[in-house]
Description:
- This protein has helices spanning 14-25, 41-54, 73-84, 89-100, 113-119, 121-131, 147-155, 170-179, 203-213, 227-233, 244-252, 256-283; strands spanning 29-35, 58-62, 107-111, 135-138, 159-161, 163-164, 184-187, 218-221, 239-242.
- By secondary structure, it is of the alpha/beta class.
- α2 (41-54) crosses α4 and α11 (244-252) packs antiparallel against α12.
- The longest helix is centred in the C-terminal third of the chain and has 28 residues, at 256-283.
Amino acid sequence: MPSQPSVKTNDDGRITRRFRELAKAGELGLVAYITAGDPTLEASEKIVLAAAEAGADVIELGVPFSDPVADGPTIQRASERALRSGTTMAGVLELVRRIRLHSEVPLVIFSYFNPILQMGLDRFAAAAAGAGADGVLVTDLTPEEAGPHRAAMGAKGLDTVFLGAPTSTDARLEKIAGCSSGFLYLISRNGVTGARDLLPDELPALARRVRRITKLPIAVGFGISLPEHVSVLGGIADAAVVGSALVSEIEKAATPESAAKGVADRIRLLKNAARNGVSQRRSEP
């Protein structure tokens, strides 16, 4: 098997800077996921800018895909709506460019590998970096097969974020961390995305295991939807990733403006929980 290329970490990138600021403030970060183009790309621009203004620290822009095997029904429906509205990878990158005219919020392209491969790794990397993206997360790309992807993204200064899971061994987590830059995305539980009432009891031990392996910021996702989830994560992670709960706000909204307001209100609620949770833990004996 060919060796993995060495890719320089983007120490001055927006993602790294934001996590550095959060660490200095002792504050849990909030990573917000939305499906780009749901219900339209124009609406997504309003929603992303509202999310950033409300306190989202990093925003993941999901590229709609026809076979989103890692996603639960909420995000599956969002992909279907986005595809029906004509959203393409080129459209998502143009959305990044438009957002960057108004905001410096870190942006991560969240995609399955097929749309990136179809565009071409080098062409995609150049277009994403040129538009103002900061990182790329590919849900179905394994570290063993990621060499060309990492090389292409790293050459353009894009962070590469990989997924760790509860089923990952320590050896595999080391490999995942070695391929990641910006942050490591830790899946909280087995299964697909979707809001849940409770976090897994095993999550704190899993997070501690990952913490022993890497110095990268750890962002925990899958099932994070409630303020109490975020409060708990403040003691074990660097960021909470919220997706389905935000996509649900978009799904039920009658207009892009009401979607943007619903997402912003939910982010403020979760971000306040993150700050209050940290403050409460500091005051505990």
